[in-house]
Amino acid sequence: MTVLITGAAGGLGRAFALECASRGWDLLLTDINAEGLERAARGLARQYDVNIYPVACDIRDDGQVERLLQYAGENGLKLDMLLNVAGIDHEGAFAGRGFDKIAEILRLNIEATLRVTHKALAFRRKTGTFRIVFVSSLASLYPMPLKASYAASKRFLLDFSYALGRELKSEDATVLALCPGGLPTTREALNGIEAQGFWGEATTNRLEKVARKTVSRALRGRKLYVPGALNRAFSIAARIVPPSLLAGLLYQRWSRAQAKRPAADFM
Amino acid sequence: MKTAVVTGATSGIGLAVCAELAALGFAVVGVGQSEERCASAASGLAAAYPDVPILFFRADLSRQAEVARVGGEIREYLEDRRFGRLEALINNAGCVRGRYTTTEDGYETVFAVNHLAGFMLSGMLMPCLISAKGRILMTSSGSHKGTRPRWSDMMLKRGYNPLFAYKQSKLCNLLFAYGLNERFGKLGISAYGIDPGLVKTDIGFKNAGGIVALVWKLRHRRGVPPELPAKIYARVCLEAEAPKGLYYGMSGEEKYSRQVNKRNADRLWELSERLCGMKLGADEK
For residue A121, what is the enclosing H or E element? Predict the structure, then answer.
């Protein structure tokens, strides 16, 4: 097995890398942070006896993604799984921040993610099922004021994932959308969880468990994974409650949480 | 003048040990995580003990790159200003995490900070320690008892439990001390695990998260002030003849777990060398 993971230098990407390495799979890892990627790859290599190919790359750049996959080709790597983890969030009101930040969310979470997926499909192993995972978010299930672009970008991935899954059914590939709540990854993410108080704690998932179960579910060909019983209940409620009401409720929650801390970015 | 390096030196046990050793005439090198806390600890100690040199280095010991950097800086300082001698290294920095988190090196945080950082720093400062026939003290804990190392999953990726992670890391501290004595005893190095008992520190409030802060809030009230266990460290560092035991607490030498044995110590040593990317043996020097 060979797995391509984007955003592998930190957080969930690194947790996926550890999970896959512990299963004895080879890893093609990429991240925009070259130094961080190098460190993570070194740590992985010291823990597990697998082949690790770290290639730093800005997946927003077409040429760099080409080179990444060219590298894979030159090293004779055939992909069995693609974990699209790289993503970004800039919180805050839509009108309250520069458009460059909004555009960055769309470019990375949507355009770059689809670019990698599109190009990686050409490098899949011809035998055996190909597995694709999109890291969407619990936020994708609701309209989310103050995280509007982020939540909508994750919604894009969720819907896209279902649709692509259907398209690729005949080509022996499965697509899973992962919709986690908060994950204790970076210091900023932890601050964010704490600022949300009780609901932050309650919707937070265990990182190592999410990584393990996501990979297991992808292998079983599942289409959606919402980790955590409470989060699953929320995801079902989201289908019943009218969107305008949800937007109102979530606006209250996020404005309270954001008042408690300076706006932070997290992956 | 003797020199001591203390990690986790800006608060709790580390700070109290710095004060105790400074009072006994040691030049003190502290390592702390935050710039401000380092500055305030340094100025506080300098004011209280104006006759001894006090110097603080900032480093995030969860990151191996930082351990390597600060280890290099401290060694340079020791060689330039302290005749390349280090009488005492106190690997005290420790943390608890309510959830499974990984460092930038992809290691579980508690294991990385509580054990690997001390392993690496000891390795980097070993030449200076050997010159002074120094002593290496690890802040262990009575909680190391009743656990065994989970060799199949040391980073607890398959089932994280905050208490177990902590207990295992404290067992590792003792295993490391055991391994140090085996390998470097003939060169005059002595290593110890210290049991400070239940101490009123802020360890459970520092980025611990989850349920840990809540539990610690109730538990730490019953702890003793860090000045009391600091005396154990001072005693072990000062004794003219290096104490022969491995594990010391308030009441002197204490019993330790049967898991602290050569087999486990060697296995941990080998794993630590691999995870830190360095060889630490008496022959290499």
Answer: helix A113-121
The span from the CA of A207 to the CA of B16, in Å, is: 36
- ipTM score here? 0.87
Q: What's the mean pLDDT in B198-226?
A: 85
Decide: B123 and B276 in contact? Cβ < 8 Å: yes
What is the Cα–Cα distance from A39 to A124, expressed in whole angstroms?
Answer: 27
The H or E element containing residue B71 is: helix B64-81
- B185 at the A interface (CB within 8 A)? no
Q: B138: which strand partners?
A: B91, B193
Asked whether the predicted pLDDT for residue B118 surpasses 90, the reply is yes
Domains of chain A: 2-259 (3.40.50.720)
Lowest-confidence range among A120-124, B16-20, B178-182, B219-223? B219-223
Closest CA to B270 of B169, B183, B141: B183
Domain of B27 in residue numbering reads as 3-276
Between CA A177 and CA A169 the distance in angstroms is 15
Is residue B166 flagged as an active site residue?
yes
What average pLDDT score do residues B69-86 get?
Answer: 96
A122 CB neighbour count, 10 Å cutoff: 9
Q: How many domains does chain B have?
A: 1
Q: Of A62, A68, A152, nearest to A114 (Cα)?
A: A62
Question: Would you call B274 and A46 a contact, using CB atoms and an 8 Å cutoff?
Answer: yes
Which residue(s) pair with B56 in the sheet?
A: B30
CB atoms within 10 A of CB B162: 21
**pLDDT at residue A201, rounded to an integer:** 77
CB spacing of A190 vs B210 below 8 angstroms: no
Residue B80 maps to a domain:
yes
For residue B106, list chain A residues with Cβ-Cβ distance below 8 A: 14, 17-18, 39-40, 43-44, 47
